[in-house]
Structures are given as structure tokens and as C-alpha cells.
Amino acid sequence: MTGKHIKIQGFIRCFIMIVCIVLEAVVAIWAMVQIFKSGIKLCYYPFYRVTEKVFELPEYASEFVPQGLSYCEEEDVYLISGYIYKENESKIYVVKPDGSYRCVAVMKDDENPLRSHSGGICENGRYVYLAGGNGKCYVFNKKELLDEKNQSVCVAGDFKTGNTSSFCYADDEHLYIGEYYYRFKYVTRYDHHLTTPAGDANNAVMIVFHFNDEKKNGVERVPEMGLSITSRIQGMCMTNDGQLVLSASSIFQGSQLYYYNYNDILNGESGSLNVRGELIPLYYVDSQSLIRKKEILPKAEEITFQDGQIYMLFESACSRFQYGTLLDGQYVYSMPYED
Fold first, then answer.
1. Could you say which DSSP state residue 57 is in?
2. Partner of 210 at 20 to 30 A CA spacing, among 62, 118, 161, 328?
3. What pLDDT is stored for residue 324 in this prediction?
4. Amino acid 46: pLDDT
5. pLDDT in tens, 233-251
6. What's phi and psi for 195, nearest 5 deg?
């Protein structure tokens, strides 16, 4: 064997050793990630134990930041609203129960996209409502939005809500539009900072409009009432037995669901609130009517109620945050609300 052949064999052995070391390192890192992921998920075992994955969020690894969630019962589709990070362009995804979806660009007019930190979404009758995050609620023609031929939908109308308009929810009679407060970054009007009869510090308000199909945008111009709510609220829903459920979320305090007795709220002490020059009744959502609290995955957003289940989504898995994939935060989950 010549010296040249010995050198070649030595090079091959060295190369094989390097490849083996790299592979071992990759396997070790993969194993550490899996152990870390399992450890993190173990902290949320009570959540996983009672929930089911409904479908994967559309394009969750993209720049789209999911915010709102609603279910259209008649059409059997889900609506997921949000915005494109940095560009701030609003998008709506129409998702079927099997997870297939269609992306709809939200347009301010025929040429310009709606640029808004779009939050919650809900529907009632002929209309779809989108919380603009800017003190406005945007209104769309539901038939146009759900038409599979349309890749975009134009705003059909809008109205000022009397708060920052972060999330929304619709039942048969009312449109609820709430706002998000969190310390210094997400602020609300000073007159929305209230001490409740229970002594709680509430820093946000939900404005409640009564539906009227004969009125512009499908709602009465003057709100029916206000609901004083706590900080960090990202969404709400009403159950069929009269519970008001709020989803709360922030970076350092995690995410929770708060369950309240809605009848106790409306029968409790009340005040008044000035909304665009009109005095409306104000009721307090506080610890006196609180039934229970449940911990859920981080970065919770809007929730909705359907067939005894609370459906929820999270923004933690989108490209803006990414860490949510460690917790399978890229799914819409359902949970029996009585669990």
C-alpha cells in the first residue's frame, strides 16, 4: 500500500468520524428539545387533558397574527381574523371543520387594503363584524365574504365603538365589543379605569349594542349598556346557561378563562358611562360574580361557544413569537365549558 493510499484511508476514517460526531450531536440536541418540550407541556397537562385539537391554524408560521375566532353555524365554517405583522394589513381566513381554508384580503376600498391591528370577529344575520383595534368596528356583507369566488372583501360600513375595540362577540340579540388593557403599552380611556363594588380595579369596558336589521350596520346607534371588565381581556363568549366567559392573556401572567354569572352582573349594582355624548347603564364584571378560573396555553386570543364547547385560539405559534409550537399552540382547541 502506497503512502498516497494510506493518506486517503486516513482522510476517509477522519471524515466518517466527523460525520458520526455531528450526527450524534444532532440526535442529542433533538433529544434535548423533545425532553424540554415534554417538560414544558407537562406544566399544562390539566389543559391538554380536557381539550381536543379541532384544526391547525392556517399558515400559522407566516407573518399572519391570528386574533379573532367565530363560528358561522348555518354555513358550518369558522372565521379567523388578524393582521399581517409589520404591514398591518387585515386578513380573514374562512376555515372548514376539516381544516381546509380560504384567505380573504380585507380592503378599505377597491384599491387599498385595510391597515389595522384587527382583533376579534363575529357574525349575525347579514353582517360580519371586525374589531378594528382603533376605536372602530368594521362591517362586512357576510354573503360576499363567504362567496368562494371572492379573494377579497371590501368594508361595507363602520362605526365608532366608544372604546379601543379589541375583540367582539355576538349572541342572538347583542353585539359585544370589548377592549384590551395592559399596563403602559395598551392603554384605555381614564374614565374606563374604575373600582368595582367588590373593590376590584377594572381598567377596560365592553360596549353592548342591540341588533336591529333595519338600522345602518345592523345595530342601534346608541349602545344599550356597558360592562366594566378587568385588564388583559382578549375575548369573550356567552354559554347557553347564562355564563359570561372572558379570556385573559399577557406575557408574564399567562392566559386564563374567567367564568362569571351574567345574571348576577345585571342584577348587581350599576352606574353610568358616557359614550359619544350618551349616558348608558354600566354594570360591573368583578369577583362578586366570578364562578371559577382555568389556566390555558399562553397568548390566548378570542374564544367562541358552540354546542357546549368553548373554542379558543392562540397567537404564540405565529412567526412573530414561534415558541408556541413547543406547546402545540398552532391549533384551535375545544374544551367542554363545564369541565
1. P
2. 118
3. 86
4. 93
5. 999 999 999 999 999 998 7
6. -100, 125
User: Quick one: cell of 34?
Assistant: 423533545
Confidence at residue 5, expressed as pLDDT on a 0 to 100 scale: 57
pTM (two decimals): 0.88
Residues 6 or more apart whose CB falls under 8 angstroms from that of 269 comprise 197, 284
Residue 281 grid cell: 347603564
Tell me how crowded residue 141 is: count the other CB atoms within 10 A of its CB: 16
Return the C-alpha cell found at 194: 374604575
Edge-to-edge strand order for the sheet containing 52-56? 52-56, 331-336, 309-314, 300-306
At residue 169, what is the residue type?
Y
CB count within 10 Å of CB 180 equals 28
Distance CA(289)–CA(265), nearest Å, equals 6
In this structure, how many other beta carbons lie within 10 angstroms of the beta carbon of residue 213?
Answer: 10
Per-residue model confidence as pLDDT tens digits over 25-74: 433 333 334 434 445 678 899 999 999 999 999 998 889 999 999 999 99
Look at strands 225-229 and 278-284 and give their pairing: parallel
Residue ranges in the chain assigned as alpha helix (H)? 3-43, 45-50, 142-146, 262-267
Q: How far apart are CA 22 and CA 13, in angstroms?
A: 14
Q: Position 75: which residue type?
A: E
Q: Is 77 helix (H, G, I), strand (E, B) or coil?
A: strand
1 DSSP β-pair partners: none
pLDDT of res. 12? 59
The ranges of the chain with pLDDT < 50 are: 20, 23-38
Q: How many CA atoms lie within 13 A of 69 on its CB side?
A: 29
- For 234, the grid coordinates are 382578549
